[in-house]
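Progress note, sequence design subtask.
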């Protein structure tokens, strides 16, 4: 009885927080959709190059907000164990994420070589993983603007040519809130999230890195079917 009295208020708080999160997401979706639809109509009548570049930047910002919306929606669903496992075209998902990030980082060159591959997984969660790995490659590539993205034999390779890491750093990278470079914006939770997702979805994760040479991240998938 005492345990129930102490647990019930906590469960009620969790339920209220979850409901508030759903309602907040719903309220955010309307203004975001309004901005995107009206921006599209404005661009149709624009001819000035400067105005077009400005609207393109606004559109990129809206896409970033939409991604954050999707991530919050995913996190809420994951807490309620309603994550959707589905068959996906892995190569198409990787291409879509790379194209999205390339719009955010137009000065970078993404060299993409993808073999047609199918797998079964949590598509939204995997999108977050791919985004995080490519984004890390960009952020830690101080003297390089090239990222290699390859998919072959059910293995995804993301290679940057940035600062790299030594063996001591490699031992810490999956710790929550660890950042090898404190000056880079972020919270240091990305790679811990990547590892947790891979562990939960039977994806083998391996990271090879050399200081001043770069870092290669390898994800080995259990393929549902490989198309030839």
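Output:
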């Amino acid at each position: 009885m005492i345990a129930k009295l102490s647990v019930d208020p906590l469960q009620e708080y969790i339920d209220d927080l979850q409901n508030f999160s759903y309602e907040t997401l719903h309220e955010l979706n309307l203004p975001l959709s309004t901005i995107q639809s009206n921006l599209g109509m404005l661009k149709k009548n624009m001819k000035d190059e400067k105005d077009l570049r400005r609207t393109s930047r606004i559109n990129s910002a809206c896409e970033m907000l939409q991604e954050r919306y999707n991530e919050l929606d995913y996190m809420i669903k994951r807490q309620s164990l309603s994550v959707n496992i589905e068959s996906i075209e892995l190569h198409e998902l990787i291409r879509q994420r790379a194209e999205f990030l390339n719009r955010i980082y137009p000065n970078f060159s993404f060299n993409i070589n993808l073999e047609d591959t199918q797998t079964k997984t949590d598509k939204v969660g995997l999108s977050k993983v791919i985004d995080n790995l490519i984004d890390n490659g960009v952020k830690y590539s101080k003297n390089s603007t090239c990222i290699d993205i390859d998919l072959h034999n059910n293995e995804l390779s993301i290679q940057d040519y940035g600062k790299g890491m030594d063996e001591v750093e490699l031992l810490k990278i999956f710790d929550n809130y660890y950042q090898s470079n404190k000056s880079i914006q972020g919270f240091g939770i990305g790679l811990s999230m990547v590892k947790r997702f891979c562990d939960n979805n039977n994806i083998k994760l391996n990271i090879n890195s050399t200081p001043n040479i770069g870092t290669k991240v390898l994800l080995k998938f259990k393929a549902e079917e490989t198309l030839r």
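Residues 150 and 201 are 20 Å apart (CA to CA). Work on this subtask will continue into the next period as scheduled.
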